[in-house]
TrEMBL record:
Keywords: Repeat. It comes from the Bacteria. This is RHS repeat protein. Residues 816-835 are annotated as: Disordered. Residues 174-342 form the Teneurin-like YD-shell domain. PANTHER family: PROTEIN RHSA-RELATED (PTHR32305:SF15), PTHR32305. Residues 771-803 form the RHS protein conserved region domain.
Length: 1030
């Protein structure tokens, strides 16, 4: 006997069905399906039960069968995926006599062993390479000691009620916790003695958080416990409103005192939901709405922006995304194997990529289409150890040599060595994983003429305070940078000490910058040699004003003046609309500039005031965001003249530019100007099998300049060479901190936690000069000032970052600044080249004079057309247009050349009222877990999400499982892992497995939107907080 039940009809009229073997509570589901799916048979699941064989089989709509084998206690001990097919694999999870798991055997036979004590506590984890992590417990079965594979110990102490009162790391740094009578944490005393205090209401909700500096953030809730008001340390209030279903429908932000009169008093964000809890529409503070539609299972079908442009999603019978249509109606196709692993991707431009995995689901090969008769295409092979860590990557293109990179790790999975043909890297760590030193060795490579050079070895060494803040870095030449912090890690001074011999007396440190901060720890004042800069911010952390003047005088010294005659202060002001878009800026050297946007925030016009040296620029785009030639209209609005679309997103013509591409989407040739007029410039680009630019040839006036580029194993550019010599670069993480060409060298210092340059020291020893950066609202340098406050370098920018050098000249007794050049005009007397090295443009970008391109860490950027010259190496995780930089470069940045984001004041002072922890803590934990094996390229196939449930427990989900290094990291962090279901994102696995989810942070910048599974919408619709860093 069987019985079918119809699921409740919801407001969207979606119906789900279930068929049972018998009626009553003992009934088992034989079949479940949804009637309202666009694909017949989609989401149709069938179940077979064989109790005598202890096997349950699940067959999905594609006919794929997964068999679950269980023991007498109903524990699953083996899972057979794709049963009965050539792709069948077996995962074993054996148990002991009590039913507790004793480990895992993956499909390759690699075993992870779990050992337990008599009480069932996990006491040892032994990975597939024999590395052991051990745990010890107190009588309350609480972990007191965790000992890693290298013998480092973490100690924890508890009170009689089991509350954690003290935690000590292997360096002896102790954090203490104080609790009230109800067990709530009311004070956290860090290893430096700083005290953070938390206050709770009778319902155990956080109502106040006071940081180490005494600054308090307060929270208020409604009768249902939903946060309705947040008041920061400056008294600025953010309000939240909900509907009867508990869904967030309105966020009212504090108003900016400097906004234009047309701006609403308080920016308001609106959200509309359907009866199934899916986000239907979001309306920004400017009244522009983005809309979403879904299928019967809640999967996004369309995303329609405020201009009516749409992304469309297509799924197969297993609910897998098989096609994505962009705004130009071009399509990207996806294909999968029986294990739901992506096997083929064909992009909007027809670029084909195939992915091959081993039985454990680890990526082993990437195959790409060829573009030459010399071979079948490009193949990248990945060699792994027993823990799945990458040991070697070998890329073979249709031309050129094999590009090989090798990696080595310690017992904790930390990268210790990496090498390729250009460079070798060695890393050393302290017991808690802080990087102590990095040694970078450049191999003996030839320059552009083939002349060999010697190896060059340089090292950086680092030190940290009790809270993990980096306090000093020793440079290869012996100079030492020092950072001084207050509170939990707010920078208040940077200074540099000269190189010292062992017998030399201590030398005075040069102060690079002293900082003052407001109650939100935002920088409001900075010393810069003889200058002092002041910064004003709006409630959203956007820069409103910047003024730099001689300390105590209100003036800046004039360049080229021996007696440092003063000119008026450098001063800039910024105005934003309610949606946070820059609509105007005024500059004491450049005048006023206004900006216009379309409803989705794409920049349409830059309109300088009369007399400004800046260029008037107008833009038009196709629906997918590709730049098109525009025709001026009224008030700077481009006229839509049906300019067509760039169907494959490969821009081939723009104004006097022509681009050619290889089969992989890399620009191989750019032609600019007019050959007959003698103004033509031809740029030829050569790429290696890793899609890295390795050579450029620039031809001007019949003369060709060749330049070669080399990269280290992490993809950082370490050298470029031409016929006249080589420039070498030294890196600290993703920051280029030193460059040297011959006898000329420069040290670069950045604002904390960012890519914004703060100062540069040119030269070494006693023959050095210090310059300070004066940057705009997105961190692009506008001026450099010297120790006397004179402007030593200045530039004007077009909208997409193309710079023209300018000089500020004295003209008799006239104090007016004079621009040496404006666009479209020839200077009467061109200014001499700047006497200092200043390569930076937009954040993370370095200008290459030989090509006009900007090196942008993982890619190269063309500032003439505002796009990259190769496709995004992270694919659709970045943007649907794989060449796009940003729709609005006045507000957005992309320091790594991977994925853009809003610029603004970095501030880590906020507390998330849902978690009771600093905002972004869960996201940081997710990132730390994912990047435990960060030098393994396979992590690009995996997203990690960390959740805090209503009991305060931390749980982690993954989109593609956890490798051994990540499993060890979660154990170390005290995070439980939930099972991974193929085809689900990390957030979806958490929502599937955990009840009482309160807040989720992901290893990506945000949970994905409707361009994928719309995890952000699913979290919001379920009332789950997103704990991100911005």
């Amino acid at each position: 006997m069987s019985r079918s039940l119809t699921g409740p009809r919801k407001p969207m009229q979606h119906s789900s069905f279930a068929q049972y073997d018998i009626e009553g509570p003992q009934g088992r589901v034989l079949r479940s399906w949804c009637a309202d799916t666009p694909v017949p048979g989609q989401d149709d699941d069938r179940f077979t039960y064989l109790p005598h064989e202890r096997v349950t089989r699940h067959t999905d709509g594609l006919g794929r069968t997964t068999a679950y084998h269980w023991d007498a206690r109903f524990n699953i001990i083996a899972t057979v995926i794709a049963e009965g097919t050539p792709e069948q694999i077996i995962e074993q999870t054996p148990t002991d006599a009590t039913g507790a798991s004793t480990g895992r055997i993956d499909p390759l036979g690699r075993r992870t062993t779990l050992r337990r004590d008599a009480r069932g506590n996990l006491v040892q984890i032994i990975d597939a390479m024999g590395h052991a992590t051990t745990l010890e417990y107190n009588p309350l079965d609480l972990v007191t000691t965790l000992r890693d594979a290298l013998g480092h110990e973490w100690q924890q102490e508890y009170d009689s009620r089991g509350h954690l009162v003290q935690a000590t790391d292997p360096l002896g740094r102790t954090t203490r916790y104080r609790h009230d009578a109800r067990g709530r944490t009311v004070e956290v005393i860090d290893a430096k003695g700083g005290s953070k205090r938390l206050a709770w209401d009778e319902a155990d909700r956080l109502v106040a958080y006071t940081d180490c500096s005494g600054q308090t953030t307060r929270f208020a809730y409604d009768v249902l416990g939903q946060p309705v008001l947040r008041t920061d340390a400056l008294g600025q209030q953010t309000r939240y409103e909900y509907n009867d279903a508990g869904q967030l429908i309105r966020v009212i932000e504090p108003s900016s005192p400097a906004g234009p009169s047309s701006q609403p008093a308080s920016p308001t964000h609106l959200y509309v939901w359907n009866g199934e809890g899916h986000l239907l529409a979001y309306t920004d503070p400017m009244g522009q709405s983005t809309r979403y539609t879904y299928d019967g299972m809640g999967r996004p079908l369309t995303r329609i922006d405020a201009a009516g442009r749409s992304l469309t999603y297509h799924y197969d019978r297993a609910g897998r995304l098989i096609a994505l249509d962009n705004e130009n109606h071009a399509r990207t196709h996806f294909r999968y194997d029986l294990r739901d692993q992506l096997t083929d991707e064909v992009g909007f431009d027809g670029r084909w990529q195939r992915y091959i995995y081993n039985a454990a689901g680890e990526l082993t090969h990437v195959i790409e289409a060829g573009g030459s008769d010399a071979g079948p295409g490009k193949v990248t092979c990945f060699e792994r150890d027993a823990l799945g860590r990458l040991l070697a990557k070998r890329a073979l293109g249709h031309t050129g040599p094999v590009e090989e990179t090798t990696y080595r790790y310690d017992a904790l999975g930390r990268l210790t060595q990496a090498g390729n043909a250009a460079s070798h890297l060695a890393f050393a760590y302290d017991p808690v994983g802080q990087l102590l030193s990095e040694t970078q060795t450049l191999q003996a490579l030839g320059n552009a003429t083939g002349q060999a050079r010697q190896k060059l070895q340089r090292s950086l060494s680092h030190g940290y305070d009790e809270l993990g803040n980096r306090t000093h870095t020793r440079m290869p030449d012996g100079r030492t940078l020092h950072w001084l912090f207050y509170g939990s890690g707010h920078l208040h001074q940077i200074n540099i000490a000269p190189a010292q011999g062992p017998d030399q007396p201590p030398a005075a440190h040069q102060v690079i910058a002293d900082m003052e901060r407001d109650a939100l720890h935002r920088e409001v004042r900075r010393s810069q040699g003889a200058l002092s800069s002041r910064y004003d911010w709006d409630p959203a952390g956007r820069l409103l004003r910047h003024r730099a003047a001689l300390q105590g005088s209100g003036h800046v010294a004039r360049p080229g003046s021996s007696n440092a005659t003063a000119i008026p202060a450098l001063e800039r002001g910024y105005a934003y609309d309610a949606a946070g878009q820059l609509i105007a800026r005024a500059d004491s050297l450049r005048g006023r500039q206004d900006f216009r946007y379309d409803p989705t925030g794409r920049i349409l016009a830059s309109l300088p005031a009369q007399g400004s040296p800046l260029a008037r620029e107008l833009f038009a785009f196709d629906p997918a965001g590709n730049l098109l030639d525009s025709i001026p209209g009224k008030d700077g609005q481009p006229v839509d003249t049906t300019l067509g679309v760039v169907g494959d997103n490969r821009l081939r013509f723009y104004q006097d530019l022509h681009f050619e591409y290889d089969v992989h989407g890399n620009v191989t040739k750019r032609t600019r100007g007019n050959q007959k007029a003698g103004t033509q410039e031809v740029l030829d680009l050569t790429w290696n099998a890793d899609h890295q630019l390795i050579e450029s040839n620039t031809t001007r006036h019949g003369v060709t300049q060749a330049t070669r580029y080399a990269y280290d194993p992490l993809g950082r550019r370490v050298a470029k060479s031409d016929a006249f010599g080589s420039t070498h670069y030294l890196w600290d993480g993703d920051l280029m901190v030193h460059s040297q060409r011959g006898a000329r060298q420069a040290l670069y210092i950045y604002e904390p936690g960012s890519f914004v340059p703060l100062a540069t020291v040119q030269g070494a020893g006693e023959e050095h000069s210090t310059y300070w950066y004066q940057c705009d609202q997105i961190g692009a340098p506008l001026e450099l000032t010297d120790e006397q406050g004179q402007v030593a370098w200045a530039a004007d920018y077009k909208v997409w970052g193309e710079a023209v050098m300018r000089s500020v000249l004295r003209t008799g007794t006239d104090d007016r600044p004079v621009s040496a050049r404006a666009w479209g005009s020839k200077p009467v007397a061109p200014p001499p080249p700047p006497p200092i090295e200043q390569p930076f443009r937009f954040q993370g970008q370095q200008f290459d004079e030989e090509t006009g391109l900007h090196y942008n860490r993982f890619r190269y950027y063309d500032p003439v057309v505002g796009r990259f010259v190769s496709q995004d190496p992270i694919g659709l995780l970045g943007e649907s247009n794989l060449f796009q930089y940003a729709s609005n470069p006045a507000d957005w940045i992309d320091p790594l050349g991977l994925s853009n984001g809003k610029s603004g004041c970095p501030c880590d002072c906020e507390i998330n009222p849902v978690t009771g922890k600093p905002k972004g803590t869960l996201q940081k934990l997710a990132q730390k877990t994912r990047e435990a094996d960060k030098h393994n390229p396979a992590i690009n196939q995996r997203t990690i999400a960390v959740d805090q449930d209503e009991s305060g427990n931390l749980l982690a989900g993954s989109s593609n499982g956890f490798d051994a290094v990540q499993r060890e990291m979660t154990d170390k962090l005290g995070i439980w892992r939930v099972p991974t279901s193929k085809g689900l994102h990390a957030e979806e696995n958490l929502m599937k497995c955990v009840t009482g989810l309160k807040s989720v942070g992901t290893s990506k910048r945000d949970p994905c939107g409707p361009s994928e599974h719309d995890c952000a919408g699913q979290l919001n619709s379920s009332g789950i907080d997103v704990d991100d860093l911005h």
